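Question (not urgent): is this output format expected?
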Amino acid sequence: MAGLLGIECGATHTVALYEAGSRVIRAEFGPANLRLLNDSQLAKRIRQIARQFPTPSAVAIGMAGARTEADKQRLRRAAARAWPSAALHATHDLETALAADTRLTTAHRVLVLSGTGSCCYGQSPDGTTAKLGGWGHILGDKGSGYEIGLRALRACVFYLDRDGRWSALGQRLLRRLQLNSPETLIEWVAHSDKAEVAGLAEEVFAAWAKRDKIARDILDGAADSLTRDACACARKLAGKAKPVRFLLAGGVLLNQPRFAAKVAKAIRARRPGSQVVPLQNESCTGALCLAHRLARRQASKTDTGVRADLPAIPVPALAQLDQAPTEQRHPRSMQLNDMPLGQAVDLFLDEDRRLPTAIAREKTKIVRVIRWVRDAFRDGGRLFYSGSGTSGRLGVLDASECPPTFRTDPEQVQGIIAGGQPALHRSIEGAEDDPDAGAEAVRFRGVEKRDVFIGIAASGRTPFVWGGIWEANRRGAKTALLCFNPGLKLPRDNRPDLVIRPDLGPELLTGSTRLKSGTATKLILNIITTLAMAKSGKVIGNLMVDLDPSNTKLRDRAVRILRQLTHASDTEATDALEQSGWNIKKAAALLAKP
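Got this back:
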Protein backbone atom coordinates (compact mmCIF):
# COMPACT_ATOMS: atom_id res chain seq x y z
CA MET A 1 0.00 0.00 0.00
CA ALA A 2 1.41 3.38 -1.03
CA GLY A 3 1.79 5.72 1.92
CA LEU A 4 2.69 9.30 2.76
CA LEU A 5 6.23 10.42 3.48
CA GLY A 6 7.26 13.50 5.46
CA ILE A 7 10.94 14.41 5.68
CA GLU A 8 12.61 17.12 7.75
CA CYS A 9 16.28 17.78 7.06
CA GLY A 10 18.45 19.85 9.38
CA ALA A 11 22.04 20.71 10.14
CA THR A 12 22.42 17.88 12.66
CA HIS A 13 20.18 15.10 11.33
CA THR A 14 17.34 14.13 9.00
CA VAL A 15 14.10 12.52 10.19
CA ALA A 16 11.54 10.78 7.96
CA LEU A 17 8.04 9.66 8.90
CA TYR A 18 6.25 7.19 6.64
CA GLU A 19 2.53 6.61 7.19
CA ALA A 20 0.64 3.72 5.63
CA GLY A 21 -2.82 3.18 7.05
CA SER A 22 -2.58 3.32 10.83
CA ARG A 23 1.12 2.50 10.87
CA VAL A 24 3.83 5.20 11.12
CA ILE A 25 7.51 4.32 10.65
CA ARG A 26 10.22 6.71 11.82
CA ALA A 27 13.77 6.71 10.47
CA GLU A 28 16.79 8.93 11.00
CA PHE A 29 19.53 9.81 8.54
CA GLY A 30 22.53 12.13 8.42
CA PRO A 31 22.46 15.95 8.29
CA ALA A 32 21.31 17.78 5.18
CA ASN A 33 21.52 21.52 4.56
CA LEU A 34 20.87 22.44 0.92
CA ARG A 35 23.45 25.22 0.97
CA LEU A 36 26.15 22.82 2.12
CA LEU A 37 25.43 20.01 -0.36
CA ASN A 38 26.43 19.82 -4.01
CA ASP A 39 24.06 18.08 -6.43
CA SER A 40 25.79 14.72 -6.04
CA GLN A 41 25.65 14.85 -2.25
CA LEU A 42 22.01 15.94 -2.30
CA ALA A 43 21.07 13.08 -4.62
CA LYS A 44 22.94 10.62 -2.40
CA ARG A 45 21.02 11.71 0.72
CA ILE A 46 17.65 11.53 -1.10
CA ARG A 47 18.47 8.08 -2.53
CA GLN A 48 19.36 6.87 0.96
CA ILE A 49 15.88 7.80 2.17
CA ALA A 50 14.21 6.41 -0.97
CA ARG A 51 15.85 3.02 -0.49
CA GLN A 52 13.99 2.70 2.81
CA PHE A 53 10.73 4.29 1.57
CA PRO A 54 10.60 3.60 -2.20
CA THR A 55 6.93 4.01 -3.17
CA PRO A 56 5.09 6.83 -1.37
CA SER A 57 2.17 8.47 -3.16
CA ALA A 58 2.97 11.92 -1.74
CA VAL A 59 6.21 13.32 -0.34
CA ALA A 60 6.71 16.57 1.58
CA ILE A 61 10.32 17.44 2.30
CA GLY A 62 11.57 20.43 4.27
CA MET A 63 15.31 21.07 4.19
CA ALA A 64 17.47 23.61 5.97
CA GLY A 65 19.01 26.08 3.50
CA ALA A 66 16.16 25.96 0.97
CA ARG A 67 15.67 29.71 1.03
CA THR A 68 14.65 30.66 -2.50
CA GLU A 69 12.31 29.26 -5.12
CA ALA A 70 15.40 28.16 -7.05
CA ASP A 71 16.54 26.23 -3.97
CA LYS A 72 13.16 24.54 -3.69
CA GLN A 73 13.19 23.58 -7.36
CA ARG A 74 16.65 22.09 -6.96
CA LEU A 75 15.38 20.03 -4.01
CA ARG A 76 12.25 19.09 -5.96
CA ARG A 77 14.27 17.84 -8.94
CA ALA A 78 16.38 15.62 -6.69
CA ALA A 79 13.25 14.23 -5.02
CA ALA A 80 11.52 13.69 -8.36
CA ARG A 81 14.34 11.41 -9.51
CA ALA A 82 13.96 9.31 -6.40
CA TRP A 83 10.12 9.24 -6.39
CA PRO A 84 9.09 9.88 -10.02
CA SER A 85 5.44 8.89 -9.53
CA ALA A 86 4.83 10.72 -6.25
CA ALA A 87 3.27 14.12 -5.75
CA LEU A 88 5.99 16.33 -4.28
CA HIS A 89 6.15 19.36 -2.04
CA ALA A 90 9.64 20.78 -1.47
CA THR A 91 10.17 23.57 1.01
CA HIS A 92 12.39 24.79 3.85
CA ASP A 93 12.49 23.28 7.32
CA LEU A 94 10.73 26.33 8.78
CA GLU A 95 7.50 25.54 6.96
CA THR A 96 7.59 21.93 8.11
CA ALA A 97 8.26 23.03 11.71
CA LEU A 98 5.36 25.48 11.69
CA ALA A 99 3.08 22.84 10.20
CA ALA A 100 3.94 20.63 13.19
CA ASP A 101 1.76 22.90 15.33
CA THR A 102 -1.48 21.03 14.74
CA ARG A 103 -3.61 23.08 17.14
CA LEU A 104 -6.58 24.63 15.34
CA THR A 105 -6.29 28.40 15.71
CA THR A 106 -7.11 31.54 13.75
CA ALA A 107 -4.21 33.44 15.30
CA HIS A 108 -1.09 34.53 13.52
CA ARG A 109 1.73 32.13 14.33
CA VAL A 110 5.44 32.78 14.64
CA LEU A 111 8.00 30.00 14.91
CA VAL A 112 11.03 31.02 17.00
CA LEU A 113 13.73 28.54 16.09
CA SER A 114 17.07 28.26 17.86
CA GLY A 115 19.11 25.16 17.29
CA THR A 116 22.44 24.90 15.51
CA GLY A 117 21.19 27.93 13.55
CA SER A 118 18.31 30.30 14.19
CA CYS A 119 15.41 31.94 12.42
CA CYS A 120 11.92 33.36 13.00
CA TYR A 121 9.20 32.38 10.55
CA GLY A 122 5.58 33.42 10.72
CA GLN A 123 2.34 32.71 8.93
CA SER A 124 -1.05 34.43 8.96
CA PRO A 125 -4.35 32.57 8.73
CA ASP A 126 -4.61 33.71 5.08
CA GLY A 127 -1.24 32.11 4.24
CA THR A 128 0.87 35.29 4.25
CA THR A 129 4.38 34.57 5.54
CA ALA A 130 7.19 36.59 7.10
CA LYS A 131 10.73 35.67 8.03
CA LEU A 132 13.64 37.15 9.94
CA GLY A 133 17.06 35.52 10.02
CA GLY A 134 18.02 32.22 8.50
CA TRP A 135 21.04 33.78 6.82
CA GLY A 136 23.50 31.19 8.09
CA HIS A 137 26.22 31.40 10.71
CA ILE A 138 28.33 33.98 8.87
CA LEU A 139 25.61 36.55 8.21
CA GLY A 140 23.04 35.71 10.86
CA ASP A 141 21.98 32.95 13.27
CA LYS A 142 21.47 35.36 16.17
CA GLY A 143 20.67 33.57 19.40
CA SER A 144 21.57 30.17 17.94
CA GLY A 145 23.69 27.43 19.41
CA TYR A 146 26.43 28.41 16.99
CA GLU A 147 26.41 32.04 18.10
CA ILE A 148 26.32 31.07 21.78
CA GLY A 149 29.31 28.74 21.30
CA LEU A 150 31.29 31.26 19.26
CA ARG A 151 30.57 34.10 21.71
CA ALA A 152 31.78 31.88 24.51
CA LEU A 153 35.11 31.32 22.76
CA ARG A 154 35.48 35.01 22.01
CA ALA A 155 34.58 36.04 25.55
CA CYS A 156 37.06 33.59 27.10
CA VAL A 157 40.01 34.81 25.02
CA PHE A 158 38.97 38.46 25.55
CA TYR A 159 39.02 38.12 29.34
CA LEU A 160 42.31 36.22 29.12
CA ASP A 161 43.86 39.13 27.22
CA ARG A 162 42.32 41.77 29.48
CA ASP A 163 42.71 40.17 32.89
CA GLY A 164 45.47 37.64 32.33
CA ARG A 165 43.23 34.90 33.75
CA TRP A 166 41.64 31.91 32.07
CA SER A 167 38.00 31.78 33.15
CA ALA A 168 36.01 28.87 34.54
CA LEU A 169 33.97 28.85 31.31
CA GLY A 170 37.21 28.60 29.34
CA GLN A 171 38.24 25.63 31.44
CA ARG A 172 34.94 23.93 30.56
CA LEU A 173 35.51 24.50 26.86
CA LEU A 174 39.05 23.14 26.88
CA ARG A 175 37.91 20.07 28.81
CA ARG A 176 35.10 19.43 26.34
CA LEU A 177 37.42 19.75 23.36
CA GLN A 178 40.31 17.82 24.96
CA LEU A 179 42.63 20.76 24.36
CA ASN A 180 45.43 21.79 26.66
CA SER A 181 45.80 25.54 26.22
CA PRO A 182 43.89 28.53 24.82
CA GLU A 183 46.36 28.85 21.91
CA THR A 184 45.17 25.53 20.52
CA LEU A 185 41.68 27.01 20.08
CA ILE A 186 42.92 28.97 17.08
CA GLU A 187 43.52 25.86 15.00
CA TRP A 188 40.44 24.08 16.37
CA VAL A 189 37.98 26.84 15.48
CA ALA A 190 39.57 27.30 12.04
CA HIS A 191 38.84 23.67 11.15
CA SER A 192 35.62 23.04 13.07
CA ASP A 193 32.23 22.98 11.40
CA LYS A 194 29.05 24.79 12.40
CA ALA A 195 27.66 21.90 14.45
CA GLU A 196 30.89 21.50 16.44
CA VAL A 197 30.91 25.15 17.46
CA ALA A 198 27.19 24.99 18.29
CA GLY A 199 27.90 22.00 20.53
CA LEU A 200 29.84 24.31 22.88
CA ALA A 201 26.54 25.95 23.83
CA GLU A 202 25.92 23.00 26.19
CA GLU A 203 28.89 24.12 28.27
CA VAL A 204 27.59 27.69 28.35
CA PHE A 205 24.25 26.49 29.72
CA ALA A 206 26.01 24.27 32.26
CA ALA A 207 28.13 27.23 33.38
CA TRP A 208 25.01 29.40 33.60
CA ALA A 209 23.47 26.87 35.95
CA LYS A 210 26.56 27.36 38.16
CA ARG A 211 25.98 31.16 38.16
CA ASP A 212 28.86 31.90 35.79
CA LYS A 213 28.77 35.62 34.94
CA ILE A 214 30.27 35.27 31.45
CA ALA A 215 27.73 32.58 30.56
CA ARG A 216 24.91 34.70 31.95
CA ASP A 217 25.93 37.71 29.81
CA ILE A 218 26.14 35.54 26.68
CA LEU A 219 22.71 34.01 27.25
CA ASP A 220 21.14 37.36 28.13
CA GLY A 221 22.29 38.60 24.73
CA ALA A 222 21.04 35.48 22.95
CA ALA A 223 17.61 35.72 24.59
CA ASP A 224 17.36 39.41 23.73
CA SER A 225 18.23 38.73 20.07
CA LEU A 226 15.62 35.98 19.76
CA THR A 227 12.99 38.13 21.47
CA ARG A 228 13.59 41.13 19.24
CA ASP A 229 13.49 39.06 16.06
CA ALA A 230 10.39 37.16 17.15
CA CYS A 231 8.48 40.36 17.87
CA ALA A 232 9.70 42.02 14.69
CA CYS A 233 8.47 39.00 12.70
CA ALA A 234 5.11 39.25 14.50
CA ARG A 235 4.83 42.95 13.63
CA LYS A 236 5.36 42.18 9.95
CA LEU A 237 2.42 39.78 10.04
CA ALA A 238 0.02 41.17 12.63
CA GLY A 239 0.96 44.76 13.34
CA LYS A 240 1.27 45.78 16.97
CA ALA A 241 -1.97 44.54 18.51
CA LYS A 242 -3.33 41.33 16.93
CA PRO A 243 -2.94 38.12 18.91
CA VAL A 244 0.06 35.99 18.02
CA ARG A 245 0.92 32.42 18.96
CA PHE A 246 4.70 32.05 19.34
CA LEU A 247 6.11 28.54 19.01
CA LEU A 248 9.55 27.83 20.47
CA ALA A 249 11.49 25.23 18.51
CA GLY A 250 14.98 23.91 17.92
CA GLY A 251 17.39 22.12 20.20
CA VAL A 252 18.47 25.19 22.16
CA LEU A 253 14.94 26.21 23.15
CA LEU A 254 13.50 22.72 23.57
CA ASN A 255 16.43 21.23 25.48
CA GLN A 256 17.02 24.23 27.74
CA PRO A 257 13.66 24.93 29.45
CA ARG A 258 15.10 27.62 31.73
CA PHE A 259 16.42 29.53 28.72
CA ALA A 260 13.14 28.99 26.85
CA ALA A 261 11.24 30.42 29.84
CA LYS A 262 13.51 33.45 29.77
CA VAL A 263 12.76 34.04 26.08
CA ALA A 264 9.04 33.46 26.60
CA LYS A 265 8.92 35.97 29.47
CA ALA A 266 10.71 38.58 27.36
CA ILE A 267 8.33 38.04 24.41
CA ARG A 268 5.27 38.44 26.64
CA ALA A 269 6.75 41.62 28.10
CA ARG A 270 7.24 43.08 24.62
CA ARG A 271 3.96 41.78 23.26
CA PRO A 272 1.42 41.42 26.11
CA GLY A 273 -1.35 38.88 25.64
CA SER A 274 0.73 36.63 23.41
CA GLN A 275 0.79 32.87 23.65
CA VAL A 276 4.34 31.53 23.91
CA VAL A 277 4.58 27.73 23.98
CA PRO A 278 7.14 25.09 23.05
CA LEU A 279 6.46 23.23 19.83
CA GLN A 280 5.09 19.95 21.11
CA ASN A 281 5.56 17.84 17.98
CA GLU A 282 8.88 17.28 16.27
CA SER A 283 9.31 19.09 12.96
CA CYS A 284 9.06 15.95 10.85
CA THR A 285 5.45 15.70 12.03
CA GLY A 286 4.86 18.93 10.14
CA ALA A 287 6.38 17.41 7.02
CA LEU A 288 3.96 14.50 7.29
CA CYS A 289 1.06 16.96 7.76
CA LEU A 290 2.12 18.73 4.56
CA ALA A 291 2.18 15.36 2.77
CA HIS A 292 -1.40 14.79 3.96
CA ARG A 293 -2.48 18.17 2.58
CA LEU A 294 -0.76 17.45 -0.73
CA ALA A 295 -2.50 14.06 -0.97
CA ARG A 296 -5.89 15.67 -0.31
CA ARG A 297 -5.31 18.22 -3.07
CA GLN A 298 -4.30 15.42 -5.40
CA ALA A 299 -7.44 13.49 -4.57
CA SER A 300 -9.69 16.49 -5.20
CA LYS A 301 -7.87 17.28 -8.47
CA THR A 302 -7.50 20.89 -7.40
CA ASP A 303 -3.75 20.69 -7.40
CA THR A 304 -1.22 18.54 -9.19
CA GLY A 305 1.49 19.09 -6.64
CA VAL A 306 4.33 21.54 -6.91
CA ARG A 307 5.74 20.03 -10.10
CA ALA A 308 3.58 22.24 -12.29
CA ASP A 309 4.46 22.17 -15.95
CA LEU A 310 3.83 25.88 -16.44
CA PRO A 311 5.44 28.51 -14.19
CA ALA A 312 3.50 31.49 -12.91
CA ILE A 313 5.58 33.81 -15.10
CA PRO A 314 4.58 33.36 -18.78
CA VAL A 315 7.35 31.63 -20.74
CA PRO A 316 7.31 30.40 -24.38
CA ALA A 317 6.17 26.78 -24.56
CA LEU A 318 8.87 24.11 -24.41
CA ALA A 319 7.56 22.72 -27.71
CA GLN A 320 8.97 25.83 -29.44
CA LEU A 321 12.50 24.75 -28.57
CA ASP A 322 12.28 21.86 -31.02
CA GLN A 323 11.46 24.32 -33.82
CA ALA A 324 14.29 26.77 -33.07
CA PRO A 325 17.01 26.94 -35.76
CA THR A 326 19.60 26.43 -33.04
CA GLU A 327 18.19 22.94 -32.45
CA GLN A 328 18.12 21.85 -36.12
CA ARG A 329 20.79 19.82 -37.87
CA HIS A 330 22.92 21.71 -40.38
CA PRO A 331 22.96 19.96 -43.78
CA ARG A 332 26.56 21.03 -44.51
CA SER A 333 28.01 19.47 -41.35
CA MET A 334 26.31 16.07 -41.32
CA GLN A 335 29.74 14.39 -41.70
CA LEU A 336 31.68 16.83 -39.51
CA ASN A 337 33.55 14.09 -37.67
CA ASP A 338 34.84 12.58 -40.94
CA MET A 339 35.51 15.86 -42.79
CA PRO A 340 39.15 16.75 -43.57
CA LEU A 341 40.35 19.38 -41.13
CA GLY A 342 41.10 22.01 -43.75
CA GLN A 343 37.63 21.63 -45.24
CA ALA A 344 36.07 21.80 -41.76
CA VAL A 345 37.90 25.04 -40.96
CA ASP A 346 36.70 26.54 -44.26
CA LEU A 347 33.15 25.51 -43.36
CA PHE A 348 33.31 27.26 -40.00
CA LEU A 349 34.73 30.43 -41.51
CA ASP A 350 32.18 30.42 -44.32
CA GLU A 351 29.33 30.13 -41.81
CA ASP A 352 30.70 32.98 -39.71
CA ARG A 353 31.02 35.21 -42.82
CA ARG A 354 27.23 35.05 -43.12
CA LEU A 355 26.64 36.52 -39.66
CA PRO A 356 26.99 40.24 -40.50
CA THR A 357 24.38 39.97 -43.27
CA ALA A 358 21.91 38.26 -40.92
CA ILE A 359 22.56 40.81 -38.18
CA ALA A 360 22.22 43.74 -40.61
CA ARG A 361 18.61 42.71 -41.31
CA GLU A 362 17.90 43.63 -37.67
CA LYS A 363 19.74 46.96 -37.90
CA THR A 364 16.69 49.15 -37.30
CA LYS A 365 15.94 47.37 -34.03
CA ILE A 366 19.57 47.47 -32.93
CA VAL A 367 19.70 51.23 -33.57
CA ARG A 368 16.56 51.66 -31.49
CA VAL A 369 18.11 49.77 -28.58
CA ILE A 370 21.30 51.82 -28.82
CA ARG A 371 19.22 54.99 -28.54
CA TRP A 372 17.46 53.58 -25.48
CA VAL A 373 20.81 52.84 -23.84
CA ARG A 374 22.26 56.25 -24.77
CA ASP A 375 19.23 58.01 -23.29
CA ALA A 376 19.36 55.83 -20.19
CA PHE A 377 22.99 56.75 -19.60
CA ARG A 378 22.22 60.45 -20.02
CA ASP A 379 19.38 60.12 -17.50
CA GLY A 380 21.46 58.27 -14.90
CA GLY A 381 20.04 54.90 -15.89
CA ARG A 382 21.80 51.61 -16.47
CA LEU A 383 22.01 48.74 -18.94
CA PHE A 384 21.39 45.18 -17.75
CA TYR A 385 22.07 41.97 -19.64
CA SER A 386 20.56 38.68 -18.49
CA GLY A 387 21.16 35.19 -19.80
CA SER A 388 22.22 31.66 -18.96
CA GLY A 389 25.22 29.64 -20.07
CA THR A 390 27.12 31.16 -22.99
CA SER A 391 24.59 33.99 -23.35
CA GLY A 392 24.93 34.93 -19.70
CA ARG A 393 28.72 34.76 -19.79
CA LEU A 394 28.86 37.03 -22.83
CA GLY A 395 26.63 39.57 -21.10
CA VAL A 396 28.86 39.54 -18.03
CA LEU A 397 31.94 39.80 -20.28
CA ASP A 398 30.63 42.86 -22.14
CA ALA A 399 29.60 44.51 -18.87
CA SER A 400 32.98 43.83 -17.25
CA GLU A 401 34.84 45.41 -20.19
CA CYS A 402 33.04 48.75 -19.91
CA PRO A 403 34.83 50.16 -16.82
CA PRO A 404 38.37 49.76 -18.22
CA THR A 405 37.37 50.78 -21.75
CA PHE A 406 35.13 53.74 -20.94
CA ARG A 407 35.93 54.50 -17.26
CA THR A 408 32.32 53.81 -16.33
CA ASP A 409 31.03 52.95 -12.89
CA PRO A 410 30.67 49.14 -12.66
CA GLU A 411 26.97 49.70 -11.92
CA GLN A 412 26.32 51.38 -15.28
CA VAL A 413 26.44 48.16 -17.31
CA GLN A 414 25.70 44.94 -15.43
CA GLY A 415 25.53 41.28 -16.41
CA ILE A 416 23.17 38.82 -14.73
CA ILE A 417 23.78 35.11 -15.26
CA ALA A 418 21.52 32.25 -14.20
CA GLY A 419 23.16 30.46 -11.31
CA GLY A 420 25.21 33.51 -10.30
CA GLN A 421 28.98 33.77 -10.08
CA PRO A 422 29.69 29.99 -10.03
CA ALA A 423 27.97 29.70 -13.44
CA LEU A 424 30.76 31.76 -14.99
CA HIS A 425 33.07 28.78 -14.60
CA ARG A 426 30.84 25.72 -14.67
CA SER A 427 27.35 24.56 -15.54
CA ILE A 428 24.78 25.07 -12.75
CA GLU A 429 22.16 22.38 -13.23
CA GLY A 430 18.65 23.70 -13.72
CA ALA A 431 19.52 27.37 -13.08
CA GLU A 432 18.16 28.50 -16.45
CA ASP A 433 14.81 26.78 -15.86
CA ASP A 434 13.76 29.05 -12.99
CA PRO A 435 11.83 32.17 -14.10
CA ASP A 436 11.30 33.25 -10.50
CA ALA A 437 15.07 33.38 -9.97
CA GLY A 438 15.36 35.60 -13.06
CA ALA A 439 12.72 37.94 -11.66
CA GLU A 440 14.35 37.90 -8.24
CA ALA A 441 17.73 38.87 -9.71
CA VAL A 442 16.13 41.88 -11.41
CA ARG A 443 14.36 42.85 -8.21
CA PHE A 444 17.48 42.68 -6.06
CA ARG A 445 19.60 44.56 -8.63
CA GLY A 446 17.09 47.40 -8.29
CA VAL A 447 16.13 47.70 -11.97
CA GLU A 448 13.88 50.74 -12.47
CA LYS A 449 12.14 52.75 -15.16
CA ARG A 450 15.30 54.66 -16.22
CA ASP A 451 17.08 51.40 -17.06
CA VAL A 452 17.32 49.15 -20.12
CA PHE A 453 17.07 45.38 -19.72
CA ILE A 454 18.23 43.04 -22.50
CA GLY A 455 17.51 39.35 -22.15
CA ILE A 456 19.80 37.07 -24.17
CA ALA A 457 18.58 33.59 -25.09
CA ALA A 458 19.78 31.88 -28.25
CA SER A 459 16.68 29.71 -28.55
CA GLY A 460 14.45 32.49 -27.24
CA ARG A 461 12.74 30.52 -24.45
CA THR A 462 15.12 30.45 -21.47
CA PRO A 463 12.78 30.72 -18.43
CA PHE A 464 15.36 32.60 -16.33
CA VAL A 465 15.51 35.31 -18.99
CA TRP A 466 11.73 35.53 -19.30
CA GLY A 467 11.47 35.92 -15.54
CA GLY A 468 13.81 38.90 -15.82
CA ILE A 469 11.76 40.39 -18.67
CA TRP A 470 8.59 39.98 -16.60
CA GLU A 471 10.03 41.83 -13.59
CA ALA A 472 11.77 44.51 -15.69
CA ASN A 473 8.49 45.18 -17.52
CA ARG A 474 6.70 45.41 -14.20
CA ARG A 475 9.22 47.99 -13.01
CA GLY A 476 8.85 50.14 -16.11
CA ALA A 477 12.28 49.54 -17.67
CA LYS A 478 12.78 49.34 -21.43
CA THR A 479 13.05 45.65 -22.32
CA ALA A 480 14.47 43.79 -25.29
CA LEU A 481 15.10 40.15 -26.13
CA LEU A 482 18.08 39.06 -28.22
CA CYS A 483 17.58 35.61 -29.69
CA PHE A 484 18.23 33.63 -32.88
CA ASN A 485 14.81 32.09 -33.34
CA PRO A 486 12.91 34.18 -35.90
CA GLY A 487 9.79 32.02 -35.52
CA LEU A 488 9.53 32.46 -31.75
CA LYS A 489 5.98 33.04 -30.51
CA LEU A 490 6.00 35.49 -27.62
CA PRO A 491 3.89 34.96 -24.51
CA ARG A 492 0.81 37.14 -24.73
CA ASP A 493 1.18 38.41 -21.15
CA ASN A 494 4.95 38.83 -21.05
CA ARG A 495 6.24 40.68 -24.09
CA PRO A 496 9.47 42.67 -24.28
CA ASP A 497 9.30 46.09 -25.90
CA LEU A 498 11.50 44.88 -28.76
CA VAL A 499 12.86 41.56 -30.06
CA ILE A 500 16.11 41.32 -32.04
CA ARG A 501 16.11 37.91 -33.74
CA PRO A 502 18.60 37.42 -36.59
CA ASP A 503 18.14 34.20 -38.57
CA LEU A 504 21.54 32.48 -38.37
CA GLY A 505 20.29 29.04 -39.36
CA PRO A 506 21.39 25.85 -37.57
CA GLU A 507 24.69 25.53 -35.73
CA LEU A 508 27.36 23.37 -37.35
CA LEU A 509 27.38 21.35 -34.14
CA THR A 510 23.68 20.84 -33.50
CA GLY A 511 22.47 22.81 -30.49
CA SER A 512 25.89 24.23 -29.60
CA THR A 513 24.95 27.89 -29.29
CA ARG A 514 28.46 28.86 -28.22
CA LEU A 515 29.26 28.81 -31.97
CA LYS A 516 27.43 31.13 -34.39
CA SER A 517 24.93 32.28 -31.78
CA GLY A 518 27.72 33.13 -29.37
CA THR A 519 29.72 34.98 -32.03
CA ALA A 520 26.68 36.93 -33.16
CA THR A 521 25.78 37.78 -29.55
CA LYS A 522 29.28 39.16 -28.97
CA LEU A 523 29.06 41.25 -32.15
CA ILE A 524 25.69 42.74 -31.22
CA LEU A 525 26.64 43.51 -27.63
CA ASN A 526 29.87 45.13 -28.86
CA ILE A 527 27.85 47.35 -31.17
CA ILE A 528 25.32 48.34 -28.51
CA THR A 529 27.72 49.36 -25.76
CA THR A 530 30.41 50.88 -28.01
CA LEU A 531 27.99 53.13 -29.90
CA ALA A 532 25.98 54.02 -26.80
CA MET A 533 29.23 55.06 -25.11
CA ALA A 534 30.36 56.93 -28.20
CA LYS A 535 27.09 58.90 -28.23
CA SER A 536 27.52 59.58 -24.50
CA GLY A 537 30.82 61.47 -24.86
CA LYS A 538 33.11 58.56 -24.08
CA VAL A 539 34.71 58.60 -27.55
CA ILE A 540 36.28 61.35 -29.68
CA GLY A 541 36.68 60.31 -33.28
CA ASN A 542 37.59 56.69 -32.77
CA LEU A 543 39.69 57.26 -29.66
CA MET A 544 38.86 55.92 -26.18
CA VAL A 545 39.21 59.23 -24.35
CA ASP A 546 37.75 57.82 -21.14
CA LEU A 547 40.10 54.84 -21.06
CA ASP A 548 41.12 53.80 -17.53
CA PRO A 549 44.93 53.28 -17.79
CA SER A 550 45.28 50.73 -15.02
CA ASN A 551 48.41 48.97 -16.27
CA THR A 552 51.59 49.65 -18.25
CA LYS A 553 50.06 48.75 -21.63
CA LEU A 554 47.05 51.00 -21.10
CA ARG A 555 49.15 53.89 -19.82
CA ASP A 556 51.22 53.66 -22.99
CA ARG A 557 47.99 53.67 -24.99
CA ALA A 558 46.75 56.72 -23.04
CA VAL A 559 49.91 58.62 -23.94
CA ARG A 560 49.43 57.79 -27.63
CA ILE A 561 45.74 58.78 -27.53
CA LEU A 562 46.60 62.12 -25.91
CA ARG A 563 49.35 62.78 -28.45
CA GLN A 564 46.91 62.09 -31.29
CA LEU A 565 44.34 64.44 -29.76
CA THR A 566 46.69 67.33 -28.93
CA HIS A 567 49.84 66.76 -31.05
CA ALA A 568 51.84 67.03 -27.82
CA SER A 569 55.21 65.36 -27.43
CA ASP A 570 55.60 62.10 -25.62
CA THR A 571 57.05 63.86 -22.57
CA GLU A 572 54.35 66.55 -22.54
CA ALA A 573 51.58 63.98 -22.81
CA THR A 574 53.05 61.83 -20.01
CA ASP A 575 53.47 64.85 -17.69
CA ALA A 576 49.91 66.03 -18.34
CA LEU A 577 48.50 62.57 -17.65
CA GLU A 578 50.45 62.26 -14.40
CA GLN A 579 49.19 65.68 -13.27
CA SER A 580 45.57 64.74 -14.07
CA GLY A 581 45.63 61.32 -12.44
CA TRP A 582 45.82 59.59 -15.84
CA ASN A 583 42.53 61.08 -16.98
CA ILE A 584 42.85 61.65 -20.72
CA LYS A 585 40.13 64.33 -20.95
CA LYS A 586 41.58 66.31 -18.06
CA ALA A 587 45.08 65.96 -19.48
CA ALA A 588 43.85 67.27 -22.85
CA ALA A 589 42.30 70.26 -21.10
CA LEU A 590 45.61 70.97 -19.34
CA LEU A 591 47.51 70.89 -22.62
CA ALA A 592 44.92 73.15 -24.28
CA LYS A 593 45.58 75.94 -21.77
CA PRO A 594 47.74 78.75 -23.20
